[in-house]
Amino acid sequence: MILSENLLHFIWEKKVFNIKLTTVCNKSIEIIDTGIRNTNQGADFLFARILIGDTEWAGNVEIHITSQEYNHHGHDLDLNYNNVILHVVWLHDCSSYTYSPILELSNYINKELLPFYHELMKGQSLIPCSKSILVNQDEKISSWISSLGHQRQVDRATKFIELLNSFNGNWEQAIWVLLCRNFGLMVNTNSFNELAFSIPISLVRKYRGSRLSIEALLMGQAGLLSESFKDEYAMELWIEFKRLKGLHKINFHSPPVYFLRMRPASFPTIRLAQLSSFIENITSLLSFCKSCNSTKSVMHFFNVQVSPYWDNHYLFDSLVNTHPKSFGNTFIYTLIINTIVPVLTSYGRMSGEKQYITQANSLLINLPPESNKIIKEFKKIGFIPRNAKESQSYLHLYNAYCSKIKCTQCEIGICSNYRDSDYSIIQL
Hints:
Distance between the termini: 21 Å
Strand content: 5-15%
Number of helices: 17
Structural class: alpha+beta
Largest sheet: 7 strands, mixed
Shape: globular
């Protein structure tokens, strides 16, 4: 195989070197951001951020097979290369090069792995080894995959505890923020997160028992209400929001909410209406989570109906055929996985009451596996999760290994050919 700059671009972009890097002058290198690949005139990667020694640099990265190519290509005379902060090469062969620090990749990548990386570059599939993997889930591999699910659970609990600490141990507000994020799903996660910060749970609780007020607060603060509405219910919400906004001196903030490429049942209007109906009946979010000891018990809490207006609306002032907007099972499963399980795990860790960690595990084991593009890819190559705990394992496998091309650390796939070899320099 002939070494190419494209392959070096791939290696740089994927950062397939999880070891301590140094320049040829022995200064430490820490890659904060590899930058954006440039297809126009100038350096190969733009807007990179790299810590070299004790100094953080922001600028561009140029990549060549050998360091002498920098001058051969005329970069030394081109103003477009004035902001190069690191020259990445396979081989440093130009002692007179003085324009920027040099990283010599041949010191950190074994040559025998280059054909493998070349195949990965050509394939660029979600699962890098999908075309050559041999499915053989022995006890060792099954145990390792199971440990990934545990690690994902720990990681999510750790993130929630960080959120909890940011609210000085206020469990109700921390759970409220996490719950709102997950009601927003992937498309509106950030928008609903901002909403939860601007309308705290303490304010929502003041109007427990008044769905109209809660819905007005959430819809209004999300920028979904208008004085130009024609429907009576829509106008009631607008008037109530104006009253509450003035009464509580709410700083109006309208995070953008998105409707495009979404099924109507997942529109932010419907999700906020469902959230209003749910939270109206909850006195304590922590107590709610602790009481969720089975899927059936969780379903009971979400067995609520939204305001009748939404039975024949997905949007304000837009009548559709009648269809009750109850919670779907798949959406409830998502809330269990992404909200209730992290809260229970966090509470069990912090309180020392391990039964809540067991409870979280039981919920995952008794839920059906998730279905998304990543899980579908694993199914294609024979890895079929039996429950949500196993699908969580595969999601962690993808995020921690497949997406980062950390194949030589993975217990499955083609890279097993390399794991037992004495490649001490490779710690991908």
